[in-house]
Amino acid sequence: LFDSARRVGESQERSAAQQLSHWARIGREIENSSAMSVAARGRMADAATYDRLAPAEQALVRAAWEDAMQARIGGLNFRADLVAEGRGYVVVGDAAGTAHQLPAATQSRRPTKKAAARKNPPAKKTSASKTRWVRRAKA
């Protein structure tokens, strides 16, 4: 959609963002006008009769379906659902890299001895007249 807006916008001397805004205004006006027939509105709920619509009405129905899908997607909150179920999840592809998220009940568990050993390596002897133990600095 953005690439199409960029190409069309160049011919109309608009930026891609301006072209998208222009299309949105046109779409809003068409939906608010009587251009979308009662038949088209009725067929939005009945996909079996979609093929019988005129091409312009099909375009309006597709736009309405897209809006409905975006509204439903926008209302999803997988994080809340997974946390409520006590399940962990992984976020991939964000700016900070991959982040693992565990539910609160899992986060409070004490680490295993192996994990603790990796996190805090054993102390190291120094060569002094008295034997001292020095904890390694965390990297």
Can you tell me about this structure?
The chain is mainly alpha-helical. The radius of gyration is 29 Å and the shape is flat. The model is unreliable at 128-136 (pLDDT under 50). It has a domain at 78-134. It contains seven helices and four strands. The chain starts with a helix and ends in a 5-residue tail after the last strand.
In summary, what is this structure?
The chain is mostly helical.
Q: How would the global form be characterised?
A: flat
Round the Cα radius of gyration to an integer and report it.
Answer: 29 Å
Instruction: Quote the average pLDDT.
Output: 70
Q: Major sheet: size, sense and barrel closure?
A: 2 strands, antiparallel
What structural class do the secondary elements suggest? mainly alpha
Strand order of the largest sheet: 1-2
First-to-last CA distance: 46 Å
Q: Would you report the number of β strands? A: 4
Assembly state: single chain
SSE order: HHHHHEEHHEE
Number of helices: 7
Low-confidence stretches: 128-136
Query: Which strand-content bin applies to the residues?
Result: 5-15%
Helix content: 40-55%
List keywords for this structure.
4 strands, 11% strand, 51% helix, 139 residues, mainly alpha, single chain, flat
